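Reply to dn_fold:

You asked what the input looked like. This is it:
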Amino acid sequence: MKRVKITVLETTLNKRLAAEYGAEELTACPMLREGQVFYADYAKPEGFCDEAWKAIYQYVFALAHGAAGGLFYYGDWIRKPGVAICCCNDGLRPVIFRLEATNEEAILNYKPVR
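and this is what came back:
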């Protein structure tokens, strides 16, 4: 299993939807900032948003287990092998991530129960 580099590309705010549905003075995501980098392997990176992790973890695991050699979805989504562009599931202020496979081996930092 390889490590996957997660880069925050953009923090966005859908102003039209936020005006209609959002809380007063809603802003782009306060948890993450553009340019932040995380590395994932067996678990969610420390300091990474739980909800964002739920939205992207399947792509992280696919890249960590070898999807780097090919393209997602028959090559009709991302043109660069080993890369996925994903976002969290916040419909008012989604954060957009670039996931990249690396050649770094994942390190198991806990003792499995079995």
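The radius of gyration is 16 Å.
Hope that clears it up.
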